[in-house]
UniProtKB/TrEMBL annotation:
It comes from Candidatus Magnetoglobus multicellularis str. Araruama. The lineage of its organism: Bacteria, Pseudomonadati, Thermodesulfobacteriota, Desulfobacteria, Desulfobacterales. Residues 261-362 form the Spore protein YkvP/CgeB glycosyl transferase-like domain. This is Spore protein YkvP/CgeB glycosyl transferase-like domain-containing protein. InterPro entries: YkvP/CgeB_Glyco_trans-like.
Amino acid sequence: MSTNFQINKGSNQMTLRFMQIHTFYTLYLHTLYQKNPSLKKASYQKQIQALLYDGFSVIHMYTPYMQQYGYETLLVIANNPFSQSQWLRENNMTIENENNWMLEIVQKQVETMKPDILYLSDSIAFDSHFLRKLSWKPRLVFGWRGSNIPSTTDWSDFDFILSHLSVCRKRALEIGSKSVEHFYPGFSPYLAEQVKDQPKLWDVVFSGQVSVLHQKRNQYINKVFQASVNKEKKFSTGFFLPPYKPGLLHPEIDKFNFGARWGLEMYRALKAGRIVINAEIDLACGEAGNMRLFETTGVGAFLLTEYHDNIHQYFEPGVEIETFKNENEMIEKIHYYLKNDAKRESIAMRGHQRCLKDYSMEKKSFCFQSDYSEVFLF
């Protein structure tokens, strides 16, 4: 495909405007600003740069890369009260309804920037109900989803939805999206550089969500814990879990839960594990492709992930990662690779090389803008 990203209007050429709207975990935002209180008073751009540097959800952030292709860009973290209120101040604006501040500020941002391309990477909070309130209609609107889709979601004003899960793409068409595209996250190489000196602290690590939407994952974590305290074959564990409903996991796991880690701290936690385990959300229905594939291999850690038929699409089992098909195989491979350091580290190295070669954000962003923007705009 051509890589000319200018709209021709007679003798004039206008730069395309690209806007991305995302949301972060509220607890992460609270933690970050608590650690960096002066950030609350920083400019809008400096706050956004600080958020990007910390690495939370950065594998979904395409605005920095779209700038490199000549786009004018704006990244909005819609539920961040600090950066959003700063944007209002810098633009001499106010809102009418404090109880609806998130949607009201984002509406003003869209109508002020007037983007040609609007990417709603939180396509649930910002679905067609939001789009219909806008006085400005972007030429291209698309979104991302890789998790459950609430029944009230409306995507009838979306040109297409991106997802690595076929179940999400199928549902997107049912609720109005004009098209769908298979897509999956990338990895920012600078994250690996930031955590390269992190020593190994635990034999097995898991960092992520546990919930009623992750029943198989919950079972795997329980099995890992039970095996880890076996007197004859003990191994150390580091669980990094946000608060979860009682009963989802073995109660003794709390003693080994170091709490949620986000951003660079999450990448350090992954790097600190000799083995990192992974399992998809139940919704995936036998498909691989979640963020942890790229986060783990990206930092050079050894990934032991649940086997799915399409895992070869991303990494080669036994060569770049390792897989398991059931709980017993998972535990057998944990014991095996803890005894075989050289083989484990060799696989981790090849997985790291594959991730940086094929799944870097630089490469993903080129595909992102050339495959989608041009096809749908020109």
